[in-house]
Amino acid sequence: HWSLGIEGGIAVETAWRPEAPIPQPGTHRGGVVLDGDLFVFGGQVGDARAIPGDPAFTCDLSDLGGGVFGDSFRYRSEDRTWTSIAPMPTAVSHTDTSVTRSGRLAIVVSGSPEPNRCGDLVQAYDPVEDRWFEIGRLPKPMKNVAAIAVGGILHLFGGQTSLSRIDLRHGRILRDAWAAPLRPRAPWS
Questions:
Q1: Distance from the Cα of residue 166 to its chain's centroid
Q2: Are 90 and 109 in contact (CB under 8 A)?
Q3: Cα first-last separation, the chain
Q4: What is the pLDDT of residues 54-94, one digit of tens each?
Q5: Can you tell me whether residue 186 is helix, strand or coil?
Q6: The whole model's pTM is what?
Q7: pLDDT digits 0-9 by tens, 15-34
Q8: Please, is 140 exposed, middle or buried when counting C-beta atoms within 10 Å of its C-beta (0-12, 13-18, 19+)?
């Protein structure tokens, strides 16, 4: 874990500095900054390997590593330490660009609930309550969709869809865009 000071979109430090390592190493995880702290959600251990010598850089999907996990963490910028937070109720990976914020909530859009599978669940995390809840489903299973919430609207761009609603293996890469009203409400509020 490394950091570089940024102000107004411009680096204010000349070199990256080492920070405390995240407690659970992993890949394909998403994160968001809320109230100055970094939140990192889920991920996976291991990944597909490229087929040696393949000019198309095709991946061998027969061994995808250790699987998906829901462990989540908060990096407290004030004292530069990591703390565990409530794990995701539905663990996902491939949310690298699929996490956004709406008010005080982090929104995690779809992802892979298991290796080589796409999901459609939209989950929200409330850092004040340290709780998760489901806020909806996408029209089709997807992973790595780019997500941003603006003015109460959730905007989604691209991503990769599943082969079908039944066959959740990774399918084609999308160039589509969607928008939908975002009304995340915690069930306890």
A1: 23
A2: no
A3: 35
A4: 888 777 766 666 789 999 999 999 999 999 999 999 999 99
A5: coil
A6: 0.88
A7: 999 999 999 999 999 999 99
A8: middle
